[in-house]
Amino acid sequence: MKKILLAEDDRNLSRSLDILLTLDGYEVVSVYNGEEALNKLCHQQYDLLITDIVMPQLDGAELISKIKLLNPDIPIMVVSGKLNEDLIEELKRYGVQHILPKPINPSRFRKMVGKIFTNGKHSPDSGADESEQPHSTSE
User: Which residue among 64, 99, 103, 132 sits deepest, i.e. has the most Cβ atoms within 10 Å of its Cβ?
Assistant: First the structure.
């Protein structure tokens, strides 16, 4: 069973994502700030980190930069309502290839997580449909 760390400070959204992932057969550990996530990642092995960007104590970008030093191979998926071109470029520099804008479409979220485990961490996915303006990390 794949183990996912979910770092999301919105407890209602965190609970909803936890339920979706659990129903899909994943083991989910939820934390509510970047500092908790960093602590968990330092002490346990995870198959995927799903993180928000705007969180208390340690934001998602800082968390990603620290995690990439400790575990450069962990796949990371970012879910954020604060996406912009500068942030997307920063995430790309850290090797983040899976970015999903909020509000989260549950179907698209589940597909993206499934693709991460099916295709591996080197398969970029922006979560955007062809008809949408992409938040793409692939070039």
Answer: 99
Task: Pick left, alpha or beta for residue 84 (phi over 0 → left; psi -120 to 50 → alpha; otherwise beta).
Answer: beta
Q: pLDDT band for position 119 (50/70/90)? A: confident
Three-state SS annotation for 69-115: HHCCCCCEEEEECCCCHHHHHHHHHCCCCEEEECCCCHHHHHHHHHH
Question: What are the structure tokens assigned to 79, written together?
Answer: 């879910």
* pTM for the model: 0.86
Look at residues 39, 66, 37 and name the one whose alpha carbon lies nearest to residue 50.
37
Q: Does the domain at residues 3-119 carry the CATH identifier 3.40.50.300?
A: no
